């Protein structure tokens, strides 16, 4: 392989300012250092584009085929110098992952100078056909990972729609399987909820149904490599209230039993670093990727009586916007928000008969199991990709 300066393979350019107040309704993705972060009516780039973070999240590289607007926190490839754009994206990703500035991890670097990047000496496959062969293998893995993520999102959205149809619109299967409310099912007024609910349902608070265990208090000295015990932390939950497997930590100790969680158990975020309290109070289900997990003090594990409430009904009730609007009012702090778990004692829900909850759970369980299976498959694919990527780009592996 050739060794050349990065600037001979690609020319990087700084992104463009676009304050929120100046954005207009449209379908052009606005790309920041962490990925798509909004939309606009005007595009700065068209065709195949490669974008990476200049400030904020350093090291992630985004390939986007189509119109977009790269923000000023990013660098984008202005000139590919005749190279395959996907190859350029993979090459840039490998170089940024290996980059260390003044001994500091790249994720904490305050900024990246494109002129510094242009001067980096990198391995280079000059033959365009060989570039495309390399990217075809990596792109196939990336496409499967993306499809699995899409499947997970669609399954979660379907679960949300079913919950809304059954327990907000009250069109759960009634007699003879007909929609309850639409077919004239009886509704009664609830003074506690200030709305109608189906006859025979009860009202209670979440605090009546659950108890909590707090997680493990760890220090940086407890963190270790992948051979340690897996630990779910606040970073494991994203702003869409989904589990982030790539943020799983590992620790060199085994916490007490109450500070550990088993697959299928439910955790809620008790801390939040987002400005708008987007994560606090959010529930996630512990995945089946490991036999047992530790979980940090930023989370709490829920225990509930299955004779009164079923897991998936409770899980979906804690994923509604109504619930989140309520619970985030019990979070306080300046830079870090801390949730007062007493807020659960004030959130009232309608509680359907246990038989209907069981019917709902039996409907959701295979869907969420399939989402968990796709998540596990992605972990294997990501591990394979992360091993292949530098080996192919550095020429340690070749493809016939």
Automatic annotation (TrEMBL):
Single GO BP term: DNA restriction-modification system
Domain of life of the native organism: Bacteria
SUPFAM superfamilies: DNA methylase specificity domain
InterPro entries found in the cross-reference section: Restrct_endonuc_typeI_TRD, Restrct_endonuc_typeI_TRD_sf, Type-I_RS_S_subunit
Pfam family for this entry, one: Methylase_S
EC number, as in UniProt: 3.1.21.-
Boundaries of every Type I restriction modification DNA specificity domain copy: 2-157
Keyword annotations of the record: DNA-binding, Endonuclease, Hydrolase, Nuclease, Restriction system
GO molecular function, one term: endonuclease activity
Family statement: Belongs to the type-I restriction system S methylase family.
Protein name: Restriction endonuclease subunit S
Naturally occurring in which organism (per UniProt): Enorma phocaeensis
């Amino acid at each position: 392989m050739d060794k050349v300066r990065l600037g001979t393979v690609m020319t990087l350019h700084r992104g463009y300012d676009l304050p929120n107040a100046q954005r207009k309704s449209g379908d052009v993705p606005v790309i920041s250092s962490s990925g798509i972060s909004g939309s606009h009516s005007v595009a700065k780039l068209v065709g195949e584009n490669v974008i990476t973070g200049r400030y904020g999240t350093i090291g992630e590289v985004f390939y986007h085929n189509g119109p977009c607007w790269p923000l000023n926190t990013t660098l984008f490839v202005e000139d590919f110098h005749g190279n395959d754009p996907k190859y350029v994206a993979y090459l840039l990703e490998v170089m940024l992952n290996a980059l260390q500035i003044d001994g500091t991890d790249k994720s904490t670097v305050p900024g990246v100078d494109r002129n510094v990047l242009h001067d980096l000496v990198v391995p280079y496959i000059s033959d365009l056909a060989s570039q495309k062969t390399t990217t075809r293998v990596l792109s196939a893995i990336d496409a499967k990972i993306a499809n699995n993520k899409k499947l997970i999102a669609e399954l979660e959205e379907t679960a949300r729609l079913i919950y809304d149809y059954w327990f907000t619109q009250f069109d759960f299967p009634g007699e003879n399987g007909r929609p309850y409310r639409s077919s004239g099912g009886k509704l009664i007024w609830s003074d506690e909820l200030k709305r109608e609910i189906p006859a025979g349902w009860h009202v209670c608070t979440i605090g009546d149904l659950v108890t909590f265990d707090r997680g493990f208090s760890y220090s940086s000295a407890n963190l270790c490599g992948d051979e340690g015990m897996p630990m779910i932390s606040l970073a494991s939950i994203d702003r869409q209230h989904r589990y982030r497997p790539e943020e799983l930590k590992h620790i060199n100790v085994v916490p007490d039993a109450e500070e550990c969680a088993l697959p299928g158990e439910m955790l809620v975020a008790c801390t939040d670093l987002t400005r708008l309290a987007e994560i606090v109070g959010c529930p996630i289900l512990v995945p089946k990727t490991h036999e047992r997990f530790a979980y940090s003090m930023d989370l709490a594990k829920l225990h509930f009586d299955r004779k009164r409430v079923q897991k998936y009904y409770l899980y979906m009730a804690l994923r509604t916007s109504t619930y989140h609007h309520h619970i985030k009012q019990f979070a306080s702090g300046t830079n870090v928000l801390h949730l007062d778990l007493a807020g659960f004692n004030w959130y009232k829900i309608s509680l359907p008969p246990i038989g209907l909850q069981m019917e709902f759970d039996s409907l959701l369980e295979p869907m969420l199991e399939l989402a968990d299976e796709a998540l596990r498959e992605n972990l294997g694919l990501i591990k394979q990709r992360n091993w292949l990527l530098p080996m192919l780009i550095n020429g340690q592996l070749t493809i016939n």
